[in-house]
Amino acid sequence: MLDIHLPLMLFVLVLFLILLVLLNSMLFQPLIKFMDDRNNSIAKNLEAAKSFSGNSDELNAKADENISNAKNEAAAIRQKAIDEQKLLAASKVEMKQNELNKEYQGFLEKLTSDKESLKNELLSQMPLFKESLKAKFSKL
Question: Which of 16, 18, 57, 131 is 20 to 30 Å from 43 at the Cα level?
Fold first, then answer.
């Protein structure tokens, strides 16, 4: 049957233990160290990414603030330009109204003088009209 050889069993046991020690020192310890280093690196990268995302939120807030400031400034400039143009238009309208009022006053004065001259002319020719009327009535 099977024979058990004690020296052979001891040799295999010693060989197995030596192999375990060698594998542990050459394979398992470096592999465990590599996995721990990798986990630490991943954790550091996650922390860095979180800090970068915090910075990006802060930068986005600053950019939004700058944009809103620029919009407010543009609106103020636009309103200032509109107000200036309204004042300019109002002054032009006032100047034109004054000019038209002067022309109207001149027209009224001319009309009054024309009226007076027409009235004087008609009054001066009144005797001729009376004579012509008398002549026409006498023919009838």
Answer: 57
